[in-house]
Write a structure and sequence with these properties.
The structure is a single chain. The protein is of the alpha/beta class and 273 residues long. The protein has eight helices and ten strands. Strands 1-4-6-5-7-8-9-10 form an eight-stranded mixed β-sheet, with helices on both faces. The protein is globular.
Length: 273
């Protein structure tokens, strides 16, 4: 039996705990993490969405590392979408603040901004989470972050569903020198098949953009124990590229979808350009 758009996200099996943190607390947590590391908030208005961002305190440099958040608290229960996708655990932000280089963090549409239903229909964190207008807005925000930080080249780092966003944004640009994903959902069609879930019908899928991505060096970090986005999702993505493509994957033992990326990130950072 195929399930609906089930909550295969950051909540994982701990669905009961997902409701314990209200939206203001989730926003406050992210702002505390950012402030503690001297990241400053800089919300960005795009054509379709107002997006939350945090910019690091490092000296401006030619290369900017942009960290893109995952799907966040997308589902309240296995079958019921949440009312607000703001993450309970902002994993991409936890990684961004550890980066000693020119870095910025970019949230996904409807996260941290407490938007109304008119601005942020539920589809933008369920079936349409990678819709063309979402990717266009994220791409526009990346351009604005690039201008704010004085960069001329980009490394895009996407966590979980942010990995798909990073890939789809990279496919639209000529200034990305490296695409990096952490537990990245790089092929949502393969992902929904694995979980026997309904397809993300309103979403773009990274493998379809392989021609635009084939010239970009890619590094993908995968948790060996990740049952949310298992290694099979990466393999489905990788097989559409020529063998000669500059794409490498590192499968890390004793790591799942959330644990323990921040602990390992200082070491993994050495592989970023």
């Amino acid at each position: 039996m195929r399930l609906g758009l089930i909550g295969i996200g950051l909540c994982g099996a701990a669905l009961a705990g997902c409701a314990t943190m209200e939206v203001p607390q989730r926003v406050a947590l992210a702002e505390h993490i950012a402030t503690e590391h001297r990241f400053s908030r800089a919300d960005i208005q795009t054509q379709h969405f107002r997006l939350a961002a945090f910019i690091g305190p490092r000296e401006k440099a030619g290369v900017l590392h942009v960290y893109i958040e995952g799907d966040g608290f997308a589902w309240a229960t296995r079958y019921k979408p949440s009312r607000d996708p703001t993450p309970r655990e902002p994993v991409a932000l936890d990684l961004a603040v550890l980066d000693s280089r020119n870095a910025a963090y970019l949230a996904r549409p409807c996260q941290y901004v407490m938007a109304s239903e008119v601005e942020c229909p539920v589809r933008y964190w369920t079936s349409d989470r990678f819709a063309p207008e979402v990717i266009d807005s994220m791409n526009e925000a990346v351009t604005q972050l690039k201008g704010k930080t004085g960069a001329d080249r980009l490394v895009l780092v996407g966590y979980s569903g942010g990995g798909a966003v990073a890939a789809l944004v990279a496919a639209r640009r000529t200034d990305v020198i490296q695409l990096v994903t952490v537990a990245g959902n790089l092929d949502h069609r393969a992902w929904t098949r694995l979980h026997q879930a309904s397809e993300l019908t309103g979403s773009l899928n990274p493998p379809d953009s392989w021609r635009a991505l084939v010239g970009i060096p890619q590094t993908h970090f995968i948790g060996q124990d990740d049952t949310v986005v298992p290694v099979e999702v990466y393999r489905s993505y990788r097989k559409v590229f020529p063998e000669s493509a500059d794409i490498r994957a590192e499968i890390l033992p004793n790591v799942d979808h959330r644990c323990c990326w921040a602990d390992m990130w200082p070491t993994l950072l050495m592989q970023l350009r």
